[in-house]
Amino acid sequence: MAAVAPTLARRIARPGMLPLCSRPQAWGRAARQSPGLPRAPSLLLTQRRAFSNNKILVELDEGSGIATMKLKSPPVNSLSLDFLTEFCISLEKLENNRGCRGVIFTSAIPKIFSSGLDITEMCRKSTEHYAEFWRAVQEMWLRVYGSNMVTVAAINGSSPAGGCLLALSCDYRIMAENPKFSIGLNEAQLGIVAPFWFKDTFVNVVGHRVAERSLQLGCLHSAPEALRIGLVDELVPEEKLQDKAAAVIAQWLALPDHARQLTKSMMRKLVLDRLVAHREEDIQNFISFITKESIQKSLHMYMEMLKKKKG
Ligand SMILES: CCCCCCC/C=C/C(=O)SCCNC(=O)CCNC(=O)[C@H](O)C(C)(C)COP(=O)(O)OP(=O)(O)OC[C@H]1O[C@@H](n2cnc3c(N)ncnc32)[C@H](O)[C@@H]1OP(=O)(O)O
């Protein structure tokens, strides 16, 4: 794994390279496996394969074909460049493994699913760094939103901004029914703006009106509110979250893969293609925006506010 990481990091970072996600993902790929094949119960219980790098723990149940990607980057699972690189490598491994047909994303950090993009990656860095970071953010979204596998977010903690985007990019969202956990695209509260593909993903889940209001106000919705507006599909007690996620994936996998994958592609292709076609322009937009002095000040103040809240 360690030997592969720098290569992939370079591939994500180099503007001249074919982006990884220009390869067909949810479309144009052979179906993984016929559905409904009976599986021996003993396999379901025994055959588990785990691999881990620094920030993500991956466990594949070979009996069911369901993997779990556990985010474990303390203190708050912020999406740093290193994290995003590891995330994409892990997901690519699963995508290339024909025995894996579904993935659950969840957190190994109590009370936090992901705190979103690592704000320190967006403060006082070089243009080259911003380009590399933003390409990695795009890559994560392209890979999850365009995945051929069934993807479920088991949201076991708060999930602002980029963390919410990860959940929104899945096929299904189940959240722990703890009213203290919140989720939403709160970028406006930081004085920044969610890019068009964050917005498109959000609109596709909750509809235009709800998305517009929530985005303008930078809302973080409590778990019950998130259910009410359709941002998550269901709430379950935290201890039942993983079992429920696996049950949902099994249900989705009971359908023929090719039909499900082509339908997913039909629903998502337009939005995915829009970013793929404008990837470099989107990176340049990010750089021009984030290097503005007023934006840097806003981010600085926000980080200070987080620190004060703590003290
Ligand atoms: C044209 C393009 C425009 C640009 C578009 C950019 C799109 C941006 C998307 C984003 O995702 S921006 C990030 C938004 N995230 C947040 O607003 C979350 C902020 N964090 C919190 O609300 C809380 O930390 C928490 C996640 C609810 C956890 O609370 P808790 O009380 O458990 O921990 P804290 O003491 O607050 O934090 C611990 C530690 O972690 C640091 N930290 C928290 N979040 C981030 C983060 N996103 N990035 C970097 N660091 C973060 C926090 O400052 C603390 O640090 P220390 O004080 O311990 O050093």
From TrEMBL:
One Pfam family named in its UniProt record: ECH_1
Gene Ontology molecular function: any one: isomerase activity
InterPro entries in UniProt: ClpP/crotonase-like_dom_sf, Enoyl-CoA_hyd/isom_CS, Enoyl-CoA_hydra/iso
Annotated keywords: Isomerase
PROSITE patterns: ENOYL_COA_HYDRATASE (PS00166)
Protein family (similarity comment): Belongs to the enoyl-CoA hydratase/isomerase family.
Name of this protein: Enoyl-CoA delta isomerase 1, mitochondrial
Source organism of this protein record: Apteryx mantelli
